[in-house]
Design goal:
Blueprint: H1 26-39, E1 44-50, H2 56-64, E2 71-76, H3 83-93, H4 108-124, E3 128-133, H5 141-150, E4 162-167, H6 170-175, H7 181-184, E5 187-193, H8 198-211, H9 222-232, H10 236-252, H11 260-270, H12 281-287, H13 294-300, H14 305-316
Parallel strand pairs: 1-4, 1-5, 2-3, 3-4
Helix pairs in contact: 1-2, 3-4, 8-9, 9-11, 10-11
Length: 317
């Protein structure tokens, strides 16, 4: 809607995990390095964690685009399955045929046998095999134990399956439980993706705008960039939501740049106060008068007198 107004080819702040927009901060480079290490780690588990919206899935998609051709990847994005269902999904992802007898689905043992035969066959021709499970904090202890058993599939030289678990911080807590100690001991690399710093937040915003086609001045002033970080705490998905709505607001008001007041109004519309950083709590009391739906209303009637008056008022602040 606002892309042409700011000289962009496309809208820059979609929350879809598009690898083209991955901002390679030092933290993100380290996260990718840990995943790439897992390709040659000789089996076991690699663990990548981060809070909601930190960019884990985008990092994963970036990683998957760089997997060597001689590496087979099974990617599970829905881990809410029983152990047997998950084994079936893994076989499907690796394109392993599974025979049904008299309409009865294969047993867990039959799944594992088929998987083991596939791993041995591909290993013999120099191929590696990696299993990636996203949202892994949703796995039950029983399913995690089944995954641990899969790392027992091996030759005399090396293990045949590398497993990458990607999930929220509670995944680390799960693996710290006594009953999962054996699995935890098989984690060969682990990394926690932290939030962006204030300077990284500004770099992140610029990066996404440039990827979207920006060739002119950044449409956020310094105060607006600082406010974006204060309200989002440096969490990329929150930054995307806030910046998208702020650009929409500036467009609706016919403004060339986003200022702090516009970010305040956008924040009141898009971010839940109880989920924002503690330092922003007082800010929400100052903008509570906005109520719900104001920015959406501005966008819908952006050519009318009400939207112009609303955003011109923001532009004067």
């Amino acid at each position: 809607m606002y892309a042409q107004h700011f000289g962009l080819r496309r809208e820059p702040f979609s929350i879809a995990p598009d690898p083209r927009y991955l901002f390679m901060s030092e933290r993100h480079r380290e996260a990718v390095a840990h995943l790439l290490y897992g390709l040659h780690g000789g089996g076991g588990f690699v663990l990548l964690t981060g809070e909601i919206g930190a960019g884990k899935t985008t990092v994963c998609r970036y990683f998957l685009e760089r997997v060597p051709r001689r590496c087979n990847v099974a990617y599970i994005f829905n881990p809410m399955q029983s152990a047997q269902e998950l084994l079936g999904s893994i076989c499907d992802e690796f394109h392993i045929p599974r025979e049904r007898r008299d309409g009865v689905a294969p047993s867990a043992k039959e799944h594992v046998d088929a998987l083991n035969e596939f791993l041995l066959r591909t290993h013999a021709v120099g191929q590696n095999n990696v299993l990636v499970i996203d949202e892994a904090q949703m796995l039950s202890a029983g399913v995690l134990e089944q995954l641990r058993l899969l790392t027992n599939l091996e030759t005399s030289e090396r293990k045949l399956l590398q497993i990458i678990l990607i999930g929220q911080p509670e995944l680390r807590e799960m693996l710290a439980r006594p009953e999962l100690e054996q699995l935890s001991q098989r984690v060969i690399a682990r990394y926690h993706l932290e939030r962006l710093s204030e300077s990284e937040t500004a770099q992140y915003i610029r990066h996404r705008l440039v990827v979207a086609g920006l060739t002119t001045t950044l449409p956020f002033d310094a105060a607006a960039l600082a406010r974006v970080h204060a309200l989002t705490g440096g969490v990329p998905r929150r930054i995307n939501l806030l910046c998208d709505r702020a650009l929409l607001g500036a467009y609706a008001g016919g403004l060339a740049r986003v200022n702090r007041a516009i970010v305040d109004r956008a924040g009141a519309e898009t971010l839940l106060p109880e989920r924002t950083p503690p330092q922003a709590a007082r800010h929400w009391r100052r903008v509570a008068w906005l109520g719900g739906g104001t920015l959406l209303g501005a966008a819908l009637v952006g050519s009318g007198w009400w939207a112009k008056e609303f955003w011109q008022t923001a532009g004067r602040k």
